[in-house]
User: What shape does this take?
Amino acid sequence: MIIVMKPTADKGELDHVVEKVEEVGCKTILLEGTNRKVIAVIGDKRDIPPEYWDSIPGVEKAVPILTPYKIASREAKKADTEIKINDQVLGGKKIGVIAGPCAVEDQDQINYIAERVKKAGAIALRGGAFKPRTSPYSFQGLGEKGLEYLAKAREATGLAIVTEILSPEHIELVSSYVDVLQVGTRNMANFLLLQAVGECKKPVILKRGMSATLDEFLLAGEYILSHGNPNVILCERGIRTFETHTRFTLSLSIVPELKRLTHLPIIVDPSHGTGVRDLVCPMSKGAVAVGADGLILEVHQDPEKSYVDGPQSITPEDFENLMNETGAVARAVGRDI
Ligand code: PEP
Ligand code: MN
Assistant: This one.
């Protein structure tokens, strides 16, 4: 950290700041500029927020050098993190595609979609059993029955199961049925939930909050990591902007930026990110081109009849085409799918 003193700071204020820094166990180096002094702080004190230093008399600004996410950062671990999802790996050379309906509707529906997406190359099946809905009158998911259907679909296809977790109270129940827990956009800043999935050892897909900055997103991931779970997969799923031609604005530029800042795998959700079926394939190709490690996609055998998110759901046939087209992009950037 660098502490920049105000041009008006006197010797007493400077000595006081040095004293405060030494009090927390760090060393200081004083750099004297022509009209102000700067203190270089040696030592890792990221647990003290920069605002603490800003409020000391004579200080203009404390500038952190180290990223606030200690475990998630590339500074902490250079090599990409690969996460095992049953017999598959996410974060390696192969692009991992997770596909399935927005919500589990019945056993036949989930089995049928599972078989189709598996045949086309998906590594895991998604499906919501507990749905976070904007309206309390909308379909809320089948709950435990939905989890049972998902587990049966795994038996039938061998696909790993991904489902959303809404509350810390559901951890035991949900993790007894599924392989990967998903924290949705509306819960990215639910710190008790992040801690709870951090204490669980199942891989977690953490979706970006729809109004979260990159730093807030990575710090949410840090919550999970710092509670003992190293298996965190970040997911860009679109953010709220003024634009209305899509449901959200899929922020693909965050992918290479996250790749630079963190070793964690990053997947992209073009279904929620656009809300528009016809945009799902082009944005999947774009995501892979910019370095995503995987995709999560909504697939429904009859999108018009889908209980939830029909307009953004693609058919199993569309999914096969998407896998072929995205595969060509993957090979062009040195990956497989
Ligand atoms: C979902 O994947 O079904 C979902 C609700 O996603 P998000 O949290 O990104 O809206
Ligand atoms: Mn959905």
